[in-house]
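task queued by scheduler; priority normal; single chain, no ligands, no partner chains; default sampling; output format set to structure tokens
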Amino acid sequence: MSPHIVCACVTEDRPEFIPWLLWNYHKQTYVNKSLLIIDSSLEVPAFKTDKTGWVTLHGVAHGMSVAAKRNLALDLAQGDAISWFDDDDWQHPQKLELAAQSGLPLFGAARAWFYNIFTGEAQPHTGNGVLFNSAVVDLRLAKSVRFDEHLTIAADTPWLREVTSRAGLAIGVAPAPTHAWLCHDENMCNPVESKKWGRRVDGPGFDSETMEKLEELRLRLLHSIIFGT
């Protein structure tokens, strides 16, 4: 039987990104999956579980830290593996499928893209190992490591370092990027001004539908900037 992969997202006060998140989840070619959203927004969306039964939202106190929300997601997740689906990431449609096919406790990509949502320019990135946002992790392994709730940003770095250490040699690396970070004004770690732009994203998966959804997201963000909603 194919493993059940939980896609976990933690978010706060970014309703413009929720349709983008749901599209990235539903377009995954892998079937045995679910989406768990931990939302600390002042106004949490009304739905708790969507009509498929496989998208569940938990509202928590406003201002709850990212690390604390990730730990809660680990506590609530039920399945065989987990992958972090940030609301402002682009996910390759075969991200989960490639990981499931590997059969390894840790699978992901060492390469990714930064994408400027307003100009369409990109910057490639290469890490020293599997990148956090690309990783699909055996759930027992993931639950064995806690996020440091004293860290206000980048708590994912020490968490993944420990997960990687515990995985040992049982790690698979995808041959091409399986995600891209969207750079915009509300980024916590990757603001637009911190990158050198000029390239275009290439590779399979970043198709015409992706460009259409990006344009819809741009319009929602511009509307929010102009009208404050």
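post-processing summary
- The mean pLDDT is 92.
- The radius of gyration is 17 Å.
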